[in-house]
Amino acid sequence: MVMIKDFNQRLSLAKVAGSLPLNPHFFSESVALLQHLIRTPSLSGQENDAADIVHQYLFGYSVKVKRKGNNLWCFNKFYDEHKPTILLNSHLDTVMPNEGYTKDPFCPEIIDGKLYGLGSNDAGGCLVSLIATFLHFYSYQGLGFNLCLAITAEEENSGENGIKSIIPQLGKLELAIVGEPTLLQMAVAEKGNMVIDCISHGRSGHAAREEGDNAIHKCLKDLEWFSTYQFNQQLKSLSPVKMTITTIKAGLQHNIVPARCEFTVDIRNDDTFTQQEILDIIKKNVSCQVNARPGSLGASSVSIDHPIVKTGIAIGCKTYSSPTTSDQAWLSIPSVKIGPGDSARSHSSDEFIYLEEIKKGISLYIRLLDALPLMLINNPNKYKNEIRHINN
After folding, report:
1. Which residue in 217, 301, 289, 226 sits closest to 251, CA to CA?
2. How many Cβ atoms from other residues are within 10 Å of residue 204's Cβ?
3. How many alpha carbons fall within 13 Å on the CB side of residue 51?
4. Dihedral of CA 76/124/313/192: which sign?
5. How do residues 32-41 score in pLDDT, each as one tens digit?
């Protein structure tokens, strides 16, 4: 390999990808693909038919696709093991349609520039936009990096057969762009999620006599603690841990003192505290039995000085910290979450995405990858390690 030492030569190399013409059919094909996916139920764990559709679509572009379960992944045509690999990821699965739908959740209607249907916003628009982006760069031989497109399952239920089941097969990854609806803003951090089940134990007795030890009364102090406790803050007005009591259950009938009171706490946290540290603090302060559910999602964040973040800011992206979780939680590499659509529409009745958002999503993803080499080259001292990859 020849090291490119001349700055202007490096700059020209970085600009080549940006001059690639965009296939004029990508947008219309992306909309048609999303409509096909909406017609195909793909609840978490039941994504087989949707995975078949995407597999066949990519096969139409002669892309060699690998598959495990309902997860698909592929690499750019001229993959080079000596270059860093950027992961493009979004998910196939959807939640169950809720009872508030007035439209058929599996009928992809387009009305007034909106594409309606279950999964259109979360995360179908991101999914098809990332596929179009991958195909845009797929056959370009002069990329300074590799691209790995991973279309994955079971994101909505944090399932065992989702992205974490294929991470070892993806090889060494340097960076990930995770497609989720963010109004095309860049999430540079997202909260982790842990759910704990708590049990207060008492002793049953007859309600008419002074018998028993009421478990409801015993848990009141713990409920108050969960509602009022404040974890140490690193930033003013930004709590690193949010604990919300979401369910409670006790009692058998009106005349029996309850011996057991169960309640559930939903916990959202940034990376100030590990989830084990949070559990330890809880157990030191409450009297109830505390059990953490399996499948907790860790918090993630990327430095504001990371090249991908700087690139996003340079092309006009706003940055923020996301309160929701995604497959970022399973990744141990720097990652950002960004995509067309609005998180506020996710899991809502009559879910939709604007067609214009998909068009802008494709454009933004491509601009982000186009501009990344320029960010590195224009900051030679700060990003000398990354430039070494681009120059190889």
Report:
1. 217
2. 17
3. 23
4. negative
5. 999 999 999 9
